[in-house]
Specification:
Elements (H helix, E strand, L loop, with lengths): L1 E4 L2 E4 L3 E5 L5 H19 L8 H9 L4 E7 L2 E9 L6 E8 L5 H15 L9 E4 L8 H5 L4 E11 L3 H9 L9 E5 L5 H12 L4 H4 L6 H12 L5 E2 L5 E5 L2 E12 L2 E9 L9 H18 L6 E7 L3 H10 L2 E11 L3
Parallel strand pairs: 6-7, 13-14
Antiparallel strand pairs: 1-2, 3-4, 4-5, 5-6, 7-15, 8-14, 8-15, 9-11, 10-12, 11-12, 12-13
Helix pairs in contact: 6-8, 9-10
Length: 337
């Protein structure tokens, strides 16, 4: 069989794409478990993916959707995406069995994905973190209009004495006594919406999560953070910057899974920026997590955070607190059609 594909001819290929359904469950398990075996090493997953039964349950409940590429009726690649978590269409992973015809298989999956989501993409952005081996797909998906933002992942490891010494060396409070760092209180929620919206509406995050563009959307993001939709919220480790008693900055913390703490949002009102205040917010949050780990109250192994690779001030700030850069990846997004 010969298939013409984007002007190229592929010999001895018989490819077709299908939406994963109960008719494919028995033969799909092999390739899914192949993905699970390399999820951490090849795709930089921090936690083990769902086992096969859990994944099928998520498919049945329509939490996620899966497109399967069949080669001579055998699954050799798949794409997983979801529209259930945020206002974006989240493309989670593209996995191919082996290395044959990788570009062709990925493109066929992307084209079926774009077809399946055509109506939704009129109102929603597609976001796709190109983690691990998927970074090699950058050139190919640019062909479909995807754009890219470089993100760096930084980690503060609980067992790194050097990082802890760096953290403890930072002053506990801002020199200006008009400022004070306190812990989260639900009374600060409305102020947090204003500060996060102001700080993120023009940031790259708004390119792949358009909720940041409005206060209503930002409210939805924060509501999901503090109510544990995006992982266990850590109110006692979430820091608030007060100026003359009024909140003007926030550092949110949660648990993304297992023993990993995360800082999903840090923002300070524009008129208070450029004074080195963010480091005090982050320090207080990380210190609290570190103390919980050392006391044995919580079994944290690290705190992680991401920042744009070209945001030099943010990267320097995290380094000065004891974070170390682990890896970077292209965060891709497809604007609304």
């Amino acid at each position: 069989c010969i298939i013409l594909y984007k002007g190229k001819t592929m010999e001895n290929a018989n490819y077709q794409t299908e939406i994963l359904n109960s008719n494919l469950y028995k033969i799909f398990g092999g390739i899914y478990n192949d993905f699970r075996s390399v999820a951490k090493s090849d795709y930089m997953f921090e936690l083990d993916p769902l086992d096969y039964e859990g994944f099928i349950d998520a498919i049945d409940k329509e939490y996620v959707k899966c497109i399967v590429l069949l080669e001579n009726h055998i699954p050799t690649a798949f794409l997983v995406y979801t529209t259930a978590i945020s206002e974006s269409i989240e493309l989670n992973v593209i996995h191919c069995l082996g290395n044959d015809d990788l570009t062709a298989k990925r493109r066929l999956l992307i084209e079926r994905f774009l077809k399946e989501t055509e109506a939704e993409r009129k109102e929603k952005v597609v976001c796709y973190p190109l983690l691990g081996v998927q970074s090699s797909f950058t050139t190919d998906i640019a062909h479909y209009g995807f754009k890219f933002v470089g993100l760096a992942v930084l980690r503060f490891m609980m067992d790194n004495k050097n990082s802890e010494e760096i953290l403890r060396s930072v002053a506990n409070e801002p020199q200006d006594e008009s400022y004070k760092v306190v812990t989260w209180d639900d009374l600060y929620f409305d102020a947090a919406v204003d500060v996060i919206h102001e700080g993120f509406k023009t940031a790259s995050d708004a390119l792949f999560d358009t909720r940041y563009l409005t206060k209503e959307g930002t409210n939805d993001i924060l509501d999901k953070i503090v109510n544990g939709v995006y992982g266990e919220f850590l109110p006692e480790s979430t820091s608030v910057l007060l100026y003359n008693g009024r909140p003007c900055g926030f550092c949110f913390t949660n648990i993304t899974g297992g023993r990993i703490a995360n800082i999903p949002l840090v923002s300070i009102k524009k008129e208070h920026q450029g004074k080195g205040l963010a480091k005090h917010l982050v320090k207080k949050s990380v210190e609290h997590i570190l103390d919980k780990a050392h006391s044995g109250e919580r079994d944290f192994t690290e705190v992680n955070v991401s920042a744009e690779t070209n945001n030099i001030p943010a990267l320097k700030m995290y380094r000065h607190i004891g974070f170390k850069e682990d890896y970077s990846y292209p965060q891709s997004y497809l604007p609304i059609a």
